[in-house]
Amino acid sequence: MGGVHSRECHTIAKDIWQWCIEKQIWLTAAHIPGTKNVEADRESRVFSDNKEWMIRSDIFQQITDIWGEPSIDLFASRLNHQVPCYVSWKPDPGAAFIDAFSVTWDKHLFYAFPPFSLIARCLQKIQTDCAEGLMIVPMWPTQSWYPKLLRMLVAAPRVLPQQRTALQMPGMPQEVHPLFRKMPGSKPTVVKFEAYPDNPNICVVTNLKAYLNRTSSLRGGAQQLFISHYKPFKPVSRDTISRWVKAVMQKSGIDVNLFKPHSTRAAATSKALLKSVPLEHILSVAGWSSSDTFAKFYSKPVINTDSFSNVLLQE
């Protein structure tokens, strides 16, 4: 009987051989061409890479810079694991374990980017094992697991950049995740602003022209509208714009502990509907594709066709 490189396999082979001797069974080995070895090889030949999506490595690094390096990747494979120790969902030659739900999570600072259908089960597992780690989930407030997720947070969540390549397929870095195409803002949108000549001080068009004129010499090749007012005058992030809006709200006497920058979106659209701006016009301006949620809470009879911006500014 020959040997193998794996001690475990060698031990198993010896046990089988010994059992056969005791039962007076004679074993012979024969080669079967791969094309005919269908049943035994079925699972090893089943492969679908559409489940191999992963967070881009530089984004993952930013996450670990904030919360520390995880010791295990719970939902991964040999193609997309973010740390050396990982758990696969099927037999994998490099995996430390198979099936994340078959191991305890409390012994590790885990990293989990689970299939969306398993998020609720993951939250239950975290509670059961009293585990702590990093989990990537969609911002999906309508899901039943979302309130539970918020209650279980031990630190403020971070919103990942909404970029076409934030999620990558191993070996195909330019492939775009199907969900990205459904996200608001994933497609270029033309925004039209109407002038408000009654009061140039609050006219969007007048102020944008003045802003572009004042920043023209600082922009360089920047295409983004808003840039930093400090050198080197680079395009600002969404968080920076949010801080600017919050500062203006605070100076206007608005309680920023109660109302957040995003509240301006709800306030503006609700006021427009109250002033009888057509719902379809509000949806267009706000970039909403469905009126279901908005109409449920703010539906009012339409009595005229005043423009969205003029209605808000005439106060």
TrEMBL record:
InterPro entries: DNA_brk_join_enz, Hepadnavirus_pol/RT, Integrase-like_cat_sf
One Gene Ontology term from the biological process aspect of the record: DNA integration
Keyword Mitochondrion: no
Alphabetical UniProt keywords: DNA recombination
SUPFAM superfamilies: DNA breaking-rejoining enzymes
MF terms (GO), sorted A to Z: DNA binding
Species of the source: Pocillopora meandrina
Protein name: Tyr recombinase domain-containing protein
